[in-house]
Design goal:
Helix content is 75%, strand content 0%. By secondary structure, the chain is mainly α. About 6% of the residues have low confidence.
Amino acid sequence: MRARSGFLAIVIMLCLVAADPALAHHLMGGRMPATLAQGLLSGLGHPVIGLDHLATIVAVGCLAAGQRLGAGLVIGFVVAMAAGVAAHVQGVTLAGADMMTALGVIVLGAVLLRGGGFAFGPAAAIFAVAGLLNGYAFGESIFGAERAPLYAYLAGLAAIQAAVGIAAMMAARTLRDAGSDPAPLRLVGGGIAGIGIALAAAQILPAT
């Protein structure tokens, strides 16, 4: 029952953010964090109000539920995400990162929608790529910041990503272990895939 309620809360959260995409990536109104506290708060809030990032970490957690070392997969994603932030902050340029992130959301959502999963090796590789792409996007909002807010941002970012991912994994694992109806997981997967399609369309339509 608690797992079902948790997934309902996730679906509602995704829908609320989708209804107001202007919230994404603007926890501080677009301002650069200038203090330790601002960096921490920005890191904690950014993945929750950023629709693409929230959808990605929820999908990662749900898909990791099928693995014995699922928590390790979530942490691996978070480590890759931190590496992506570092790459952006160091000035690495990655063309088409937003489109690749959207496509990643579609793939993860589609796999979850079909009720499938990945073997551990492919999952680790796919989650690492997804983490790097998401981290690179996160780096945009902290690029040029001083060290103190930058490190605080990374700490908050890693903490909230790990917490959301592991919470989604535990909820999904509870549902599967109980032999419950897979509909809630597939509902989340369908919502995530739909978000990815909307994000990809947003990248294409303005240019046409």
